[in-house]
Amino acid sequence: MSTVITPIRGPLRAIAATRARRGYDWILIGAAFTLCLIGAVLVFSATRGRLADLGENPQTYLAKHLLNTALGAVLLWGASRLDSRLLRLFGPLMYVASLLGLLAVFAIGSTINGAHAWIVIGGGFEIQPAEFAKLGLIVALAVLFAQRRPIGRPTLSDLSVALLLAVIPLAMIMLQPDLGSALVLCAITFGILLAAGVPARWMIALGVVAVIAVTVAVKGGVLAEYQLARFAAFTNPNADPQGVAYNITQAHIAIAHGGWFGQGLFHGAQTNGAFVPEQQTDFVFSVAGEELGFLGSLIIIGLFGVILWRGLRIAAAARGASRLVAVGVVSWIGFQSFQNIGMNLGLTPVTGLPLPFVSYGGSSMFAQGLAIGLLLAIHRHSQRTD
């Protein structure tokens, strides 16, 4: 009998392995990891010269970025194995955990680049809880609206609870202050409200309230001085080119030098001269513009387009809370990518947001790995139920 069963096991295992591979969206995975690898090269280019001048290992940031990518891949795989039907169970837990992380910042956090938003864990690594708050809010809102029968008909009570869920982490992040992450939370909330079927008149009313709130924040001193200065530099970058507008001015010069095809990897004059501050994080796109040129930058934008396309396809095939989670992840990555690239090009104000998958940073890489993993988990469940 064993001689009969043994030849059968091989084909059965092959079929099982094929089904496992089919359960993943390899186009989505490929686009995300290609951006990570491009980011590794750009981060290395932006930091190697400065580290060498300081007598340090020029590969330090490269090694850390690759390590962050590897850890993000592990988190992606773990999240992809979750049963998306359990969102109602672990969704509230994720939200509460993200709030506890934000609270921990006020107790043991450190101030970096003007924001008290980091928890130093040693070994040159820091955690930014605001990155995980984005994912916590997505899952919490998705679970809230998925309670409705039928989904897509939220009540005013549902909307009130949703806004409360969003306002709590939003207020905590604004106290740090971290305007960039706060804007991402607003984009996530807006995207999920639309997908949940909130009536247009309510959305218009929320838009009016948002404009009033921004006006009050600007006029009432809610924003920090450096944040107000960034907005002033956005409206008039020539007013203080050696001061608050220095980052923007140097980024523009770097991108303009790139032309169509770029100056070549590791040959960017602005990058090698370390003229652009924070070039491995917020302004990493300026490295691409200078060294890879318009065409190379277009490839990066195209890869983000692929991620958003696959995310929307996953959302369209999903139901209930899973669908809203997918929409939330797409809203997050789409808005943050637009905001980061826009501030490098002078189209949006500088808000301190990293470019997803590309910029150096462990917290953002880990949170985005979890987000892509959840998309894959939703995709796998949708395929099983087809």
Topology, element by element:
Elements: H1 2-22, H2 26-53, H3 60-80, H4 87-108, E1 110-112, E2 115-122, E3 125-127, H5 129-146, H6 156-174, H7 179-195, H8 200-219, H9 225-235, H10 246-258, H11 269-272, H12 284-291, H13 293-317, H14 320-345, H15 362-385
Antiparallel strand pairs: 1-2, 2-3
Helix pairs in contact: 2-3, 2-12, 2-13, 3-15, 4-5, 4-6, 5-6, 5-7, 5-14, 5-15, 6-7, 7-14, 10-12, 12-13, 13-14, 13-15, 14-15
What does this structure look like?
The chain has one domain (35-385). The chain is globular, with a radius of gyration of 22 Å. The two termini are 36 Å apart. A hairpin with a 2-residue loop joins β2 (115-122) and β3 (125-127). Strands 1-2-3 form a three-stranded antiparallel beta sheet, with helices on one face. The longest helix has 28 residues, at 26-53. The chain is mainly α and 386 residues long. The chain is built from 15 helices and three strands. It has helices at residues 2-22, 26-53, 60-80, 87-108, 129-146, 156-174, 179-195, 200-219, 225-235, 246-258, 269-272, 284-291, 293-317, 320-345, 362-385, and strands at 110-112, 115-122, 125-127.
Mean pLDDT: 85
Principal-axis shape: globular
Give the number of helices.
15
Estimate percent helicity.
over 70%
* Percent of sequence in beta strands: under 5%
Q: Write down how many β-strands occur, each being a DSSP E stretch of 2 or more residues.
A: 3
Largest sheet: 3 strands, antiparallel
